[in-house]
Amino acid sequence: MMESFYSKAGNRIMAIAISVLWLVVLYLVLAVTRIDPDQQMAQKIFYYHVPSAWTAGIAFLAVAVSGGFYLFTQNEKWDHLGLASAELGTLFCALVLITGPIWAKPIWGEPWSWEPRLTTVLIMFLIYIGYFLLRQFGEIGERTRRVSAVIGIAAFVNVPIIYVSVKFWSAEAQLHPQPGMSQQPADVYWTFILSLITFTLLFVHLLRNRLHLLKLQSQMSRMRDDI
Amino acid sequence: MMLRVLLRKEILLEMRSREILVSMITFGAAVVLLYAFSFRPSPEILRQFAPGLLWTVVLFVSVLALHRSHSLEKEFDAFSLTLSAPVDRSTLFLSKWFGNFLMLLISQVILLPLFFLFLQLPFPSMPGAFIGLLILVDLGISSAGSLLSGAVMRARVNEFLLPLLLFPMVTPLMISAVKSTAAVMESQPFSQWKLWLQLIVSFIIVFGLVGYLIYDHVCEE
Amino acid sequence: MLSIENVSKRFGAAAVLNGASMRVGHSESVGLVGKNGSGKSTLLRIVSRILFCDGGSIDWDGQSLLGSDVTLRRSLLYLGHEPGFYPALSASENLHYLADLYGVERSSALIAEKLEEVGLDSFRKGPIRNYSRGMLQRLLLAKALMLQWSLLLMDEPTTGLDSDGMELLSALIASWRKEGRSLLIISHDNAWISAHVDRMYVLEEGKIKSREGGMSAPHHSDLVTAV
To answer: For chain A, how big is the Rg over CA atoms in Å?
Structure first.
């Protein structure tokens, strides 16, 4: 009943596949894709920065949706999905917040410029710090799960308002590059798509791993009750 | 009407204990004084900072009311009286929302004159627009705040969890409030700050609606 | 009729209720006994919708009490172990608010009359924060006198009462039973409770384990103390 996540062959294959993909993306990014004449090597971080943001977005959407389902069904599995997505979303948020300034330092001359998207990600990151503290310090149990679901939903519906307000607030800030992906040359385009796929697969894999762990935890606490 | 009954109770409680307003006003006055001592540059510079200072005072002070609005329900298990009664939980949310809104507004009637007096600032030349803004932002803070304060009321460290969740959540509201107040203080035409007003209104609608729909799920004893 | 089916509730890792089922028929007085921390109060609070349950169903005359239809709550009245009144308000202000919540008559003459009935008429004005435990218990009885309920849920109603108060409580329970109203009473005092109920349930390890006639009191209290 309590088997480890990697005792399933499918999961082992998936982990290996993602690692290989990761190396392929790294190779493509460093050795194959063209070097941007203006930004030089700094531009390469785009292949990691954007997929991180994309993944964080999916994760926070998943938190809000599973929060809604949890409130109406009270099924523990939705809470697990919400918690696992929140953790991963925050992790990828952190990657965005790290890679953004690394790129901005050489290009804009300053690491932090209150760029609207980056600022929105920072605010989401802060809300989710509160979310985890709540899970930590709330009573463990049904009530905390409900409240987490509510916070997840509230945080997500707030995103557009945060984004618009930050955008007009820092109108003078440096503009975020907006490359139209379809106009990019093939090497850039396909490397980016491959990286996006790799990140998404990594997210799903980590999510399933975490869900498995959460399920084991709740099985264990139920067994403890029965003893 | 049930909302009136619940709101009447909120006001009666505050009239009897006076603890929320007294703590809000003394704390707010202390912060304003602190600002007055810390920032004594030229009036020019202070005028630029005034909207930001004003809204930080309002936000800090509001946490006291928001926190208290649910923590006072824990004493004597008083919340069980309302929760077990035939009361719709959405109506209960509205009563907390409007109750907190009233507390914010009343405290500001005293704190704002102090703010303008001690920081030696002229009162905004468009008082109608300024007061209208104040009312809207208070509605926004108390909508998100009532939902969050209800959500964390049973957590062990709710005193610090509430501001921790509330502050980032109301960032867009605070940005819009600061920007529009600055515009009003400089007597800019409405078209210049219309966007900020729209943002404030959408914040109120979103959090009012979310609170109305899901407060039932967070308020438990 | 109140019917509780398979109700469960966990607080964190601890399962307080684990499939508790019981019934209270019309004009029936039912006792619920059990050790400290056995979940008696939790069950009563779930029935009163002060707490949510994790699973199970609670019906009143075939209609679910867990739904959002609040009108059904008029039939039930909860007298908790804690006062359940606002300490900053006076006795009459609290009763005034109570009457408003349930939409019943609330003239000051009526409130004064009910307070006199429970022996609190001379303490009508000051905040109830200064009341003794027994006085608060009397105020709870006034709550039951103010409203028209069909089922009264009482959690340890004898706490802090003096001998006068005990007599008052017994007289009120007797008159309510005569009127054909239903009662569900929690108490740790087996001798006292068995004199006031038609039958008794024992709550043990989250389940309702035995159901016996309340008349066989001595045998029953033996059973409970043995547990």
So the answer is: 20
- H helix or E strand, kind and range, residue C154: strand C151-155
In angstroms, rounded to a whole number, what is the distance separating the alpha carbons of residues A120 and A109?
21
CA distance, residue B174 to nearest chain A CA (Å): 9
Topology annotation, domain C1-75+150-157+181-227: Rossmann fold (3.40.50)
Please tell me which residue of chain B has the smallest CA distance to A155.
B169
Neighbours of chain C (3+ CB pairs under 8 A): A, B
CB A129 within 8 A of CB A93: no
Query: What are the chain C neighbours of B216 within 8 Å (beta carbons)?
Result: 68
Query: HSE on the CB side for B22, CA within 13 Å?
Result: 6
Q: Please report the ipTM that was assigned to this predicted complex.
A: 0.91
Would the CB atoms of A225 and C13 count as touching at under 8 Å?
yes
Residues of C in contact with A225 (CB under 8 A): 13-15, 18
Q: What is the pLDDT along chain B (221 residues), one digit of tens a residue?
A: 899 999 999 999 999 989 999 999 999 999 999 998 888 777 788 888 899 999 999 999 999 999 999 999 999 999 999 999 999 999 999 999 999 999 999 999 999 999 999 988 888 888 899 999 999 999 999 999 999 999 988 888 888 899 999 999 999 999 999 999 999 988 888 888 899 999 999 999 999 999 999 998 887 65
Residue C163: other Cβ atoms inside 10 A: 7
